[in-house]
Structure formats: structure tokens, C-alpha cells
Amino acid sequence: MDIVSLIIQLISGAVGGNVAGALLKNFSLGTAGNSIAGILGGGIGGTILNAMLGGGATAAGAAAAGGDILGNIAGGGIGGAILMIIIGVIKGIVAKK
């Protein structure tokens, strides 16, 4: 994985975390919290998805690179949303005690 892929995953994770926070207000951590959780989840989720799909652009050309970018965006966004929701659930459970 190169640095550009990682940056795409981190940005997508931040967006995914904030979108999930906007849709699921009960689990929202606020804009900064959603962004931080999303960035962490984007890096983790994007890396996992990249590893599962074989990752990296091949010598096949631009089509492979385009698919790789979309995979990074999807993995980062989904990973960011999932981690933000997990942290929001944990925060809700701890707050009730």
C-alpha cells in the first residue's frame, strides 16, 4: 500500500464517521469525535479490505488503479462508520452506568 491509498482511506474514514454520526444521532460523538474515530476506522477498514482483495494497482493499467481507488474509498468510509458506531455504543453503555 502506498501513501496515497492511506490518505484516501483516512479521508474517506473521516467522511464515513461523520455521515454515520449524522444518521445515527444516538451514537454520535460530535464532529471531532466522529472524525477521529472515522480516521482510525478508515485506516483499519481500508487496510483490511485492501488485504482481502489483494490490494495495490497492477500493471493492468488505469482500470485497475481506478478500482483500487474506489476500494480505498469504500473500505475507508465503511471502516470509519463502523468504528464510530462501535465507539458510540460503548460510550452509551458507559454513560448509563
The number of distinct β-strands equals 0
Oligomeric form: single chain
- Note the gap between the termini: 42 Å
* Largest sheet, strands/sense/barrel: none
**What is the domain total for the residues?**
1
Q: Calculate the mean pLDDT score and round it.
A: 87
Class by helix and strand content? mainly alpha
Unreliable stretches: 57-62
The coarse silhouette is: elongated
Structure summarized in a few sentences:
The protein has 97 residues and is an all-alpha fold. Helix content is 81%, strand content 0%.
Observed structural traits:
97 residues, mainly alpha, single chain
Architecture overview:
It is a single chain. The chain has 97 residues and is mostly helical. It has one domain. Helices cover 81% and strands 0% of the residues. It contains three helices and no strands. It has helices spanning 3-23, 30-52, 62-96. Mean pLDDT is 87; it is low at 57-62.
